[in-house]
Amino acid sequence: MRRRDFLHLGGGAAGAFALTRKTGKDWFGSLTPIPAGEKKALADVALNAAKGAGATYADVRIGRYLNEAVFARERFVQGVNSNESYGAGIRVIANGTWGFAATNEVTTDGLARAARRAVLIAKANSKLQTEPVQLAPVKGAGEVSWVTPIEKNGFTVPIQEKVDLLMAVNAAALAAGATFINSRIFLVNEQKYFASTDGSYIDQDVHRILPGFNITVTDRATGKFGGRNSLSAPMGMSWEYLSARPAGKFQTPVGVQYGKYYDMVEDAKLAAEQAKEKLSGRTVEPGKWDLLLDPSHLWLTIHESVGHPLELDRVLGYEANYAGTSFATLDKWKSKSFNYGSKVVNLFADKTQPGSLGAVAYDDEGVKTKRWDLVKDGILVNYQAIRDQVHILGEKESHGCCYADNWNSVQFQRMPNVSLSPGTAPMTPADMIAGVDKGIYIVGDGSYSIDQQRYNFQFGGQLFYEIKGGKIAGMLNDVAYQSNTQEFWNSVVASCDNRDFRLGGSFNDGKGQPGQGSAVSHGSSTTRVNGVNVLNTARRI
Amino acid sequence: MSELNEQQAKEILEKVMRMCKADTCQAGIGGGTGGNIRYARNSVSTAGEASNRNLNINVSFGKRSGSASGNEFEDAALERVVRRAEELAKLAPENPEWIEPLGPQTYQKTPGYYDATAKIDPEYRAQVAADSIVPSKKRGCVAAGFLQDGSQWRATMNSKGLFGYDRRTNLDFSLTVRTEDEQGSGYVTRDYNDAAKFNSAESANIAIEKAIASRTTKAIEPGKYTVILEPTAVSDFVGNLIFGFNARGAEEGRSVLSKKGGGTRLGEKFLGDNVTLTTDPFNPEVPAAGWGGDGLPRKPMTFVENGVIKALNYDRVWAMKKGVEPTPNPGNMIMAGGTGSVEDLIRDTQRGVLVTRFWYIRAVDQQTGLVTGLTRDGTFYIENGKIAYAIKNFRFNESAIIMLNNVEALGKPVRQGGNLLPPIKARDFTFTSLSDAV
To answer: Which chain B residues are closer than 8 Å to A301 by Cβ?
Structure first.
C-alpha cells in the first residue's frame, strides 16, 4: 500500500489535512510516520528482489524527509518554507561488490526494479574489485522503533509563534544597535525505516533544530563593517531548545552562553552590543598566545582536527579524491604510543548523547549505537568505523556510525558525535582566566580551514577577549590562530569541569562524492591551550 | 520514469495552477536521472543510480507568501503541496519586499543536452574507473576518483502566464592519484555537458604524472611569491567572484564592493588592467540554462572590463527599490585570457610557485575579501623558466581583490566547473605557513 492509499482510507489527503489541522498536531499529514507494517511489506519486496537477482546481502531504507524553515531580516519575514521528500534506497552486495539504486516510486514494482538495478550495478563494478566486501556480523534487530526524545515537535508549533519569535529577536538586535540582522529557524524530521537481509526492521523518527542569526553593524563614515553570529548550537532536539529555560544558561566572565536551552532574544541583544564593541576593538599583536576556547568555539576545532582525521575511511584512502586522507595513520594507532594530545586530552565518540545531533538507536545499516574512546590520556586508541571496515581494526562489531542524508544517498561512514572529556578538577571559566597572564579568550566559531591530511589548520571566531594578568582586558580584532593538530592538542593544559560541558555542532557537515550532509555534535568544557601562533588578519585593499 | 518532456511538464504545472486558490502562484518542477561511480585504493568503492522529481511551489495572498515542496506527483500529493504552501502563506506576515511574479518571458534555448551523456551506463562508468586504475597500478600509484553523470530537466510556470522548460546533461570527473609510498599526489578535474569531449585516459595521465613529479619535495620558506595558478586553482580561488557581485550588500555598506562614506565601487577601477569578467549563457564551451532562479532571461553581461567594475547584480526586489533594471542571475563566469598554455607562463617566469589546485578555502575577512586555504596535489618551484622541483604545500592568506590587482599574465581560458577560466600568473601571493600534508 502506498502512502496516498493510506491517506485515502483516512478520508483523503485533504481530509487528513483538515482533521490534523484541527487537532493542531499534524498540520500537513506528514508527521505521522507511515505504519511500520506497510513499510515492512514493501521492504521485503525489495530484499527478495535483490536476493533473487543474486545479491548476497541487501538493505533497504524507506524514508520521508521533512524540513521547515522560517527566515527573516530586520522587521519582516522573508520566507516560510516546507519541504518533503519520499523515496527508497536499496544497497546490495553482489560478487563481493557494493551496488546502490534509489527511486521515488515507492511501490512494489518500483522497489523491485531498483533492487535489480542495484544488483546489476554491483555486478558491473565487480570486474574491478580487488577487495571483496567483508561485513562485520550484525544480529537482526527484529521489528523495533525509536524516536528522538523531544518534548515539543517544532513542526506542530504554529507558524505565527515562529514568526513572533524571529520578530522579537530582530527587534532586540536592532534596538541594541545592529544595522542588519538575518535570523532563521530550521527544523528537520527524518522518518526512516531500515530493513536488511539480516532480519532487521528498524523504524526511527529523528528530529533536529537549528535556530540562528547573523548581525551586521556598519560604520558608513569609515566604511568599516563587522558582525557577530548567534551562539546557538544545532541540536538533536525540537522546539524545547528555544524555551530559554534558566537551566540552559551559563554565566561566563564575558556574558551568558547557552547549553541545553537557548534564549535567542537575549543572545541577539548581546550580539548587537558585542558587534559594536568588536568594531572598535584593538587589532591583535601577532605571536604566541595562550588561548582559552569556549565550547561554542572549540567544537569546530574538535570537528576538524579530531573528528575528520579519525574517520577510518579517510585513513584508508577512500576519501582521497575529495576530503582527503589523514595524518593519523594505522601505524600510529598500532604503536599504542602516539601522543595525539597531552595527558589531559580524552576524546570520545558517542552516538547516544542525549540532545546531540548524532543520537539515534541504530545507524543506517542496522547497528546499535554506542560510545567508545578515540584518544585516551592523550594516546590514539581507536577510529570511527562501520561494518565493512572494522575487520581492519581487528574488531568484530561495527561502531555504528553509518549514515545517509536522504533516501537517494548511499549510506557510508559518517562522523559520530566526538567530544572532549571535561577536566576532573573543579574549575570554572572564571577560575581559568584568573590563571592566565597573557591570553585570548575566544567565543563562537568563525573562519575555519584545514589541510587534506589534517595537519595545518587556521581558525577564527566570533569574539576575542584579551586576558592580561588574569583579567579580561577588552576586545581584540583581526584574530586567527594557526597550528598543527598534534602540536595543538599536546599544548592543552586544562579543561574546565563538567559543569561547563556544552555541545556545539555542525548541522550540515559535508563528505563523500556525491556530496552528502550530516549533522554532528561536539561537546567540551572551556579549554586552555598554551603558546598558540596567532595571526593578524587585517589587510588594506 | 523520471524525465518529463516539455508538454508533460506543462500539463502538470497547469494542473498545479488550477489547484491553486492563492492570488499568485509560481511553481517549478524538475528532475533527473543520474549515475556515479566512486573508486579508491585502485578499486571501486561505491556506485549507484538515482532518479527523482521535485515540485516547488510559492504562493501569495496579497503580500503574504509561503513555499512548499514535494516529490510525489499523484493528484492528491500535488494538492497537498499546494495546500501546504497556501496554508503557510495565509499564516505568514506581509512581506514589504514582496514582488509581483514576472509576466511571460522569452527564454532562448541554450545548448546543453547531449545524447552521449544521457546514455551513459554502468559499463561506461566502470571503463572510466578502469582508465584511472589500470595505468595508476602500472606506474606504482593509487587512484581515487569520481565520475558523476546525469540528465536533468526543469520547468517553471506562474499564474501570470510565464512558462519555461530546459533540459541538459552533465558529466563531472575528478581524480586524485597518490604514489604508493604516499609521498606524491596529483589531481585532475574535468566537466562537460557533452560526454563525447571527455577523454578519461588522457585526463588520468595528468594526475599520474603530477603524483610522480611531486614525490620528493623541498620545504621553502613561506612568504610572498610570484605564482602561476593552473585553471583549477583559479576556479578554486576566484571561480565564484561575479556571483557575489551583489548590489544590495555593496549599497548597504557590508561588502568588499562598498565604498567608504557610502556607495559602491561600480564604475571604479578596482582590479588590474588585464582583468575582464563576463557571463554568457550561450557560450558553447560553458552553456548555461536560459534562466536562473529569479526567472529573468539570462543574457551576456560584462561585470569587470579591464579592471573597472561595470555591473553589479540587482535582484528584482533591490532593483525595484533603487529604480534600476534588474539583472538576471548569471549562469557562468568567463574570464578573458591570452592564448598561451600553463607551460608558456612557466617559460616566462624566473622564479615562482606553480599551484595545481587549492583546498579548503574559507573567508577570513569580508571587509577585504581575505580568504585562507592551502595548496594541494602538486605544488612546484619554478626557476629560470622551468619546473625546478616539487615543494611542500603552503597555507595562504590572500584577498582575491589583491591577487587580481597583481596579475602579470594570463593563459588560454579552459572550462573548469562550468566556468571558462585562464591560468593566471600573479606576483606577491601571500603564503603564510607550511603544511605537512601530501
So the answer is: none
